[in-house]
Records
---
Amino acid sequence: MIALVTDRDVREGYSADASGLVLVPDAVARPGSADEVVDLLRHATGTRTAVTPAGGQTSTTAASIADTGIVLSTRRLDRVLDIDPAARTARVEAGVLIGDLQRQLAPHGLFFAPDPTSDQECTVGGAIACNASGPRTFRYGAARAHIRALTVALANGSVIDLRRPALEKNTVGYPPLQDLVDWFVGSEGTLGVILAAELALLPKPAVELGLAIPFGTESAALDFIVAARESAGVAPRCLEFLDGEAAAIARGDGGDGVWPEGVGAVVYVEEARDDEPPLEAWLELAQAHGADADRVNVFEGDGALAIARRLRHAVPARMHERATPFRAAGGRRISTDWAVPYRALRATIATVRERAAEADLLPPVIFGHAGNGHPHCNYIGRDAAEVRKIEGVVERTLRDVVAGGGTVAAEHGIGKIKSKWLPLQFSPIQQRLLRAAKRELDPLGLLAPGNIIAAG
Ligand SMILES: Cc1cc2nc3c(=O)[nH]c(=O)nc-3n(C[C@H](O)[C@H](O)[C@H](O)COP(=O)(O)OP(=O)(O)OC[C@H]3O[C@@H](n4cnc5c(N)ncnc54)[C@H](O)[C@@H]3O)c2cc1C
């Protein structure tokens, strides 16, 4: 049986993620093989000990931390097992970092489409367990669409191999049961430990173009995003929004000279094609919506696109840091993950701003995947009372979002922090089916307790 580490220092090393919460587990396990994971799960079942899987621990919802039982780190399961350029597939262990995988795929002219901006710190297993997405999900879809097969260890230690059926027609049984891969994508560690995955890969397009387009106001930027989405002249692969403060953070993080300055908002777009992308069409569309077309920054080639990506990633990273000094007083960053039908985004953001002002909160910094109607509103709560106040404001927004056909969580999952909001979206029948599935696969409730289904 693999050693369980109980040293305080080590346990504390696995007690924080990007949620701002700190939960110290009773022990940490760092298995280096599937057999060691299986042994650990058998031991946990025998001793009725909770096990919370953890990858890179970039979760924003406290899904990868626990104050009870064992945190099972997958970081030593870090082998790329096989790359098949002809079939455009890769088989990897769960603890491989997405950034490392992309570097190994690049010489083959291939890439893994899910691109959370945290890709240099997060694992393939964590991305699958959250059904993660990212800026380019606008074109390629979230992680679910790119998983062909999974190897999963269940709570009792049995290992199952799941492969998506190659069927083109199927009427056997209830549709959610026809492909069990889908049960584990987005299951947030609650149904099994993903050991390995077979990933579908895409060929790298010949030309990739990024544009950072400055606008005087955020409403002009948001109108432009709707227009770009509906235009026949351009075909974006990402449509990202940064409000004035988010744009300033990106610029201050090394974007001097390559990122617009002193703007109301920035829209970052990318288009990728095998022929020349329509730069003129983008500039005309931007100008028609009030953009300052003379100050558009153009990113072309892998190096330049990597810079743009780093600047965009700086926004959530710096917002997380801004909240750190308030932790001692119970403060933290509160990051929303709701999404609405994309045409409703401008009005929803206006309501968010009004509510924050009415409640006398620091203005939220808003950025993210606006092409999918999916921004992240980052609030800073300076103490525990302010965190509660912000959560009240967020809950009112979530009620509107769900009433308007949106979701309370589009890519970060529910974890522990947002499980209280699941009933806003799921009917009582859906909640009973969710609990029944959990009981069937994890009858003792040992896997990632508190994730998705609120504890107690
Ligand atoms: C700065 C920043 C930017 C981000 N940007 C994005 C973004 O653009 N798009 C996006 O979707 N997300 C984003 N995220 C959220 C997060 O990075 C992703 O959800 C990521 O995929 C989580 O991977 P991880 O390895 O860090 O998982 P962890 O945080 O370690 O775990 C996340 C969840 O997955 C479970 N889990 C981990 N490994 C396994 C496994 N092998 N088997 C079963 N369950 C497992 C854990 O129990 C937990 O429930 C961002 C986070 C940060 C901090």
Note: The chain has three domains: 8-75, 80-203, 205-410.
---
Amino acid sequence: MNSVRALVLTEYGGPGAVKVSSVEAPTAGAGQVLVRVHAAGVNALDWKVREGYVRNAHPLQLPTVLGIELAGVVEAVGPGVTGLREGDRVMGPLGGLGAYADVVAVNAANLGAVPDALDFVAAAALPLASVAAWQSLNFAGPIHAGQRILIQGASGGLGGFAVQYAHQAGAVVFATAVSKHVDYVRSLGADHVIASDKEQFEATANDIDLVVDVVGGEVLNRSWSVLAEDGVIVSTASPAILESIPAGRRGLWFMNTPDPERLHAIAEDVVEGRLRSKVGAVVRFDELPAAIERNRTQPQVGKTVVNFSL
Ligand SMILES: NC(=O)c1ccc[n+]([C@@H]2O[C@H](COP(=O)([O-])OP(=O)(O)OC[C@H]3O[C@@H](n4cnc5c(N)ncnc54)[C@H](OP(=O)(O)O)[C@@H]3O)[C@@H](O)[C@H]2O)c1
């Protein structure tokens, strides 16, 4: 068997449920390319999948390879692919699992070109967080100047981009983060940063037109009280929002869709300095199980990225 290194989930559970091992090397099916992965982004979904939180919504056959976004080089092109060639530098979400492997078969339609000036670690930090931030902010309608927007969980990957887009649109931006992350979130353009470990956000945020919730749970439940009369909550974290919308209120569950053109434009904005993309930590492949667990227990600013070359 031709095999590649991969991070495999063997059973649902804690950090010990994922192991670095070998899996059969993939081949490129119709519409797919094989990508030699150079870097991959760590996401909250990794530990949610590991723990089994999404097993009902997305049943998996275990063992399976974790990881949902990557950056690398096209190594082979499958039947029917026209836009990509061997040697192209690409990045994108998989639209499924399997990014934590040395070689991955990816739908070509998901992949955007990595600008020359961006290295693979920087590229791997972008696909999900940056595009999902844009899409979730505009999910209930295009955002515009003067809106009062609250980003719940603003120091992470998605939240950090959402703060910048909302600020650039001319919105009044409210944002929550733990105390040690407050200065960072303010530096992204938030007008009011609320230290979630010291203050109740309800004391500062009111008459909010749009809440983007990346946290869920109690934070989401409390967010209804700060909405303007015709305000809306868009949750990226909790599909359960749809079962808990108070009468007369508007709440939406958001799911991202691949958008390679927007991803490429965002990457150009990062290169040109119009947008900040924060890589908070770079880890080795064998450090992935611990990095995924850290994302659950001690979120840091920005993204964690695994560099396959270390
Ligand atoms: N539906 C979709 O299409 C989609 C796409 C991408 C991501 N997501 C989801 O969106 C969420 C965010 O993703 P991400 O990649 O940005 O994750 P992340 O980088 O881990 O950031 C999440 C942030 O939430 C904050 N947080 C955690 N607990 C909190 C609490 N109790 N109160 C306030 N803030 C809290 C943390 O910041 P502090 O430490 O500063 O509080 C953390 O930085 C995840 O749930 C992920 O699964 C969904």
Note: Residues 43-45, 128-129, 132, 152-153, 155-159, 176-178, 181, 196, 214-215, 219, 236-237, 254-256, 295, 299 surround NAP (CB under 6 Å).
